[in-house]
Design a protein that fits this description.
disordered N terminus, single chain, alpha+beta, Rossmann fold, serine protease inhibitor, signal, Inter-alpha-trypsin inhibitor heavy chain H3, 7-stranded mixed sheet, ITIH, glycoprotein, about 15% helix
Length: about 900
């Protein structure tokens, strides 16, 4: 029988790895709430994170102090006030080597954010980034560099993030502190706000913390993280607010998101590209998404389907009411769509406009309803009219403000800027649909955002002569789950007469709402601080103004475009925002070889990002006048690891002075939260198990490699009480989490041997939840709860679950059309050792029903993932 080799790796403490945090905050209560969210661990990656990950290598960590840079502090401080988020990311590192090291500081930030500051402190010397007009920054750069090419400091990183990176040479025994600051106004989508933070320390960090402080005068309805078992919900209080206007330090911000309004019927024409480039998976996913969207139509809606390649084909020549019969017929038609031919976007969109116009003229549509066109395409127009500006002109002239147009660009080859401008010109938005297994979900997700119009022609009015420099205060429509935000500067301090009025068209009658603005004194709420992060209200106004000026810079007359761009540029420089019009120049310290060239950080736009590889597709700089970042040499340390995970989250909500009390976060008795994923990945068969093969009792994960006479094992050390996410499959909602316990006796070196003492297992679709400890087993199913003791021998057979318990030994569970696993109870392994604890082992017996999205410490191995091994050394024992 061949000998099985174990490939073992050093202990990997939980605090290192990518920290990827989503915080969704739904705000609607008329009270003040201040929340602090502290994160100290990590979780499984999302689809976009997985796509950003390349092949992973398993490498023995160097133990030579001369080659080590210690990252000893990572801190992220995010303050959210009135939905405006200010984030400061600080990393501190020390070069303990006896030679200089090239250190790369690399972090991800949301695409919607503007970089506001970057600084490096090296041995007490401060280097600060300077925001300048793009052309001036280019000239400064070219003055220092006569040749070469640069990739820039900012790259695309997945779907929602941008990657900021800078390298610097650090002398032996020297320290460096990197500080990056960015700001964004959180956008409300489907009733929630998302704070996205990704931190990536590559090694154990002594001081590691993510803190998010949330201040919302309207109150916090709930705070949750994507990878948690705990119920982080605040109990709903009082009532929802229709409109909320706050005044801070001479600026006001008005949030408008009325609840409980009846939806306005919509008349939508789906214009679908079925050209040859849509073949294969794209067409399959488009069909699947359309079927789901059609099923979601309300009966009072009207719809039509137009397919195009070089020809234009309509399902029917008119819009059809979304009755069950018509929807069923349309679904059958959609399932037969096949790709063919070239791409005539111009003709297809103009056909949709004419169809809507005719239906309106013939009075076949409800008077109080909204008309929209949703275009899905993946490529360049190459049939009929193919000149992009001419197509935009034709469409804009035909629509003439009478309807909205939404454009979805599928994949890498689409000319996104063309679709973006065409949408903006016609009261809509564009969205890129990324190629991947979840493309159909992306399509459905976009449709959900525009599926339920609530109000039309929304006009927000403020006292004349009391405000100036207003951001956009008229919107053609408001969708359910979204929000209108208007900010402005006050010119009159008489706040008693500051009334806000909102007028709009509803589904049955005109809508009118009045409200009075309230002033916030942040000095009372935060007496220990000078006030959060300075003039935040002015910066919120500036951020929103710049965003809207940039959005409108592609539409309007040439004079309007020029004036808007000039104003956006002036404000970007004034408020130190890195926008598409400005660049941040980072001057690096001199090296032994002389002065080092400056680097430039630009703001990417969706139009110049090639989504497939996450790299910058175009640049304003001519390549011959730019410089490339030096390749990383042998003495280079990159302060970033593989792209994964999230962990334990503690949410605290305090009540500020003179505020209505807000319910505290209930800590549910449900077991566990999510934890880290190791940086190894191995292609294995469906049967994956882990066991305790070491006698010290630490959790020992063993992955069997069916194609070779080897097994992969790894340890993860952490303090007792830490919870690890073992398996997480978001499709069926299957989660396995394990909590570790510590041995009573601590060895002379201070090491605490740990074991698994508790498991939490949930299958949301089947409605099954298990809590397994070393003392008892709790089974929750279909509203019933059963408690079992390990001293029992019994079985439970339900429709979706088969459970067998063997006395003081094992628990075997089979979930219908899902997984089969076993929990084993280990007790009194060493009879003469009185410091031992009973502990548990988890063995997965059958996982082939789990989806490709499964992840977690064990779940990541359930489906094929490539790997390579490096730095392997022979063991004294030839059998190892």
């Amino acid at each position: 029988m061949p000998v099985q080799r174990l490939l073992c790796f050093p202990a990997m403490p939980a605090p290192w790895r990518v920290m990827l945090l989503w915080v969704c905050v739904c705000i609607f209560l008329p009270t003040q709430a201040q929340g602090a969210l502290v994160v100290s661990r990590g979780d499984d990656p999302t689809q976009e994170t997985k796509e950003a990950m390349g092949p992973r290598s398993i490498k023995k960590r160097s133990t030579n102090p001369a080659n080590m840079v210690e990252l000893y502090s990572v801190r992220v401080d995010c303050t959210v006030t009135l939905r405006f988020a200010h984030t400061v990311m600080t990393s501190k590192a020390l070069n303990r080597a006896n030679s200089s090291q090239e250190i790369v500081f690399e972090v991800d930030l949301p695409k919607t954010a503007f970089i506001a500051n970057f600084s490096m402190e090296i041995d007490g010397q401060m280097y600060v980034g300077d925001v300048k007009e793009k052309e001036k920054a280019k000239k400064q750069y070219e003055k220092a560099v006569s040749s070469g090419q640069t990739a820039g400091l900012v790259k695309a990183s997945g779907r929602k993030m941008e990657k900021f990176s800078v390298s610097v040479n650090i002398a032996a025994n020297s320290s460096v502190t990197f500080v990056l600051t960015y700001e964004e106004l959180l956008q409300r989508k489907l009733g929630q706000y998302e704070i996205l933070t990704r931190v990536k320390p590559e090694q154990p960090v002594q001081d590691f913390q993510i803190v998010t402080n949330i201040y919302e005068p309207q109150g916090i309805a709930f705070v949750e993280t994507t990878a948690t078992f705990l119920s982080n919900e605040l109990l709903p209080l009082v009532k929802k607010a229709v409109t909320d206007t706050k005044i801070v330090n001479g600026y006001f911000v008005h949030f408008f998101a009325p609840p409980d309004l009846p939806r306005v019927p919509k008349n939508v024409v789906f214009v679908i590209d079925r050209s040859g480039s849509m073949s294969g998976q794209k067409m399959t996913q488009t069909r699947d998404a359309l079927v789901a969207i059609l099923k979601d139509l309300h009966e009072e809606d009207h719809f039509a389907l137009i397919l195009f390649d070089n020809q234009i084909i309509t399902w029917k020549n008119y819009l059809t009411k979304a009755t069950q019969t018509n929807v069923t017929e349309a679904i059958a038609y959609v399932k037969k769509i096949r790709d063919n031919g070239s791409t005539n976007i111009n003709g297809a969109v103009l056909r949709a406009v004419k169809m809507l116009e005719k239906e309106r003229k013939d009075m076949n549509l409800p008077e109080r309803s909204t008309d929209m066109i949703i275009l899905l395409t993946d490529g360049m127009p190459n049939s009929g009219e193919s000149r992009l500006p001419k197509i935009q002109e034709n469409v804009h002239s035909a629509i003439n403000g009478k309807m909205s147009m939404f454009c979805l660009g599928f994949g890498n080859d689409v000319v996104y800027s063309f679709l973006d401008v065409m949408s903006k010109q016609n009261k809509g938005v564009a969205r890129r649909i990324y190629e991947g297994s979840d493309a159909a979900v992306q399509l459905q997700g976009f449709y959900e955002e525009v599926a339920n119009p609530l109000l039309l022609e929304v006009d927000l009015r403020y006292p004349e002569n009391a405000v100036d420099s207003l951001t956009t205060n008229h919107y053609s429509q408001l969708f359910n789950g979204s929000e209108i935000v208007v900010a402005g500067r006050l010119t009159d301090n008489d706040l008693d007469n500051f009334m806000v009025e909102v007028f709009a068209q509803g589904s049955e009658e005109d809508f009118q709402e009045q409200g009075k603005a309230s002033e916030i004194n942040l000095d009372l709420i935060y007496p220990e601080q000078e006030y959060i992060f300075g003039n935040f209200s002015e910066r919120l106004w500036a951020y929103l103004t710049i965003q809207q000026l940039l959005k409108n810079s592609d539409i309007g007359t040439e004079q309007e475009k020029g004036n808007g761009t000039a104003k956006a540029l002036d404000m970007s420089v004034q408020y130190s925002f890195v926008t598409p019009l400005t660049s941040m120049v980072v001057t690096k310290p001199d090296t032994e070889d002389g002065p080092d060239s400056p680097l430039i950080a630009d703001k990417l736009t969706e139009g110049n990002i090639q989504s497939g590889n996450g790299q910058d597709q175009t640049s304003d700089r001519k390549q011959k006048n730019t410089q490339v970042l030096r390749p990383l040499g042998d003495n280079t340390i990159v302060l970033s690891p593989p792209n994964h995970l999230i962990v334990a989250v503690v949410v605290q909500v305090a009540v500020p002075v003179a505020a209505v009390p807000v319910a505290a976060v209930p800590v549910a008795a449900v077991p566990v939260v999510a934890v880290p994923v190791p940086m190894v990945a191995v292609q294995v068969a469906a049967v994956v198990s882990f066991s305790y093969s070491s006698t010290d009792g630490d959790p020992h994960f063993m992955i069997e490699l069916p194609d070779r006479d080897e097994a992969l094992c790894f340890n993860i050390n952490d303090k007792p009480g830490t919870v690890f996410n073992l398996v997480r499959d978001p499709i069926p909602g299957f989660v396995v989490n394990g909590q570790i316990i510590g041995r009573k006796k601590i060895d002379p070196h201070g090491k605490i041997n740990t074991y698994f003492g508790r498991f939490g297992i949930i299958h949301q679709k089947l409605g099954v939840r298990l809590e397994v400890s070393t003392q008892e087993i709790s089974v929750f199913h279909e509203g019933k709860q059963v408690k079992l003791l390990w001293s029992d021998t019994t079985s439970i057979k339900e429709t979706n679950m088969d459970l067998r318990l063997t006395k003081n030994c094992s628990l075997t569970v089979t979930l219908k059309h899902s997984v089969r696993f076993e929990v084993i109870r280990h007790t009194n392994v060493w009879k003469k050792r009185h410091d031992q604890l009973d502990y548990l082992g988890f063995y997965n017996l059958d996982s082939h029903h789990l989806s490709d999205s499964v992840h977690g410490l064990l779940g990541q191995f359930y489906h094929g993932v490539g790997f390579e091994l490096t730095d392997l050394h022979p063991h004294k024992n030839k059998e190892k």
